[in-house]
# Entry
Amino acid sequence: MSENQTNTDVTKTPDYPEKITNKDLMKSWVRWWWANEAPHTFDRMLAPSFLFGMMPILRKLYKKDEDLKEAYKRHTLFFNTQAVWGGGTLTGITASLEESRAKAKAEGNEDEAVSEEMINSTKVGLMGALAGIGDAIDSGTVQYIFIAIALPWAAKGSAWGALFPFICFVLATFIYGYYFTKMGYSLGRNAARELLAGSRVKTIIDALSVMGLFMMGILAGSYVKVSSTLTFTLSKKTFDIQAILDSILPGLLPLVTVLAVYYYFEKKGLKITNGLLWLTGVLIVLAAIGIL
# Structure
């Protein structure tokens, strides 16, 4: 019997894994995305959520009960990462590794199959690095861009000021999270290299960071209100300090205030309560002596 005929016969056996489709990847992504924080446990963290997401794919890959049980068991080990950049990418990568393992086992090449240790070590090794990117981009940049856009509506009392950031953030993260899932599956373990060092992703991150800085500047200029009430008379002419500052650089005092708070956080760490107390105290003193 020829090698091609043998492979054809193997693929027709009931135990041979089914092909993973985009629909399967979407189903796994949706399940993980929807449940990633629901069964959060102290000892396993997000492992139950990840397993819940992987179940449709694992059922298509492992037709023997003992193989399916082993797959379920290895995905109940400790797992914790950011939902979109980490969870989406690792869902795709894990699906690719599990598919490779299932095919090798079905063809009788267990020695060449991807090991359980490799699957778990890949998840553990990447979950922290990908979570760092996701937290910085999603929580530190993307959501604030949408909030900054909606703040004027909120200030006018429009409900869209509250709804717009929530809706846009959910839609945006869902869309590119699914993209990461597909990329993880198509590139396998190389997907992490694409996310961590790839030029396309680096360009996106840089662009979002610059845009986030612009939005923070807009917010500071629009909503940080600090002005001086100090005036003095010289040679019978009255000088208004605030008018002089505005002629030099409008918004100079709000800018100085923001930079002073940033400098404080850089030196003392992100101690928000202490920073607010110091800022309030300094402003009260300056107001009391007539400078602000």
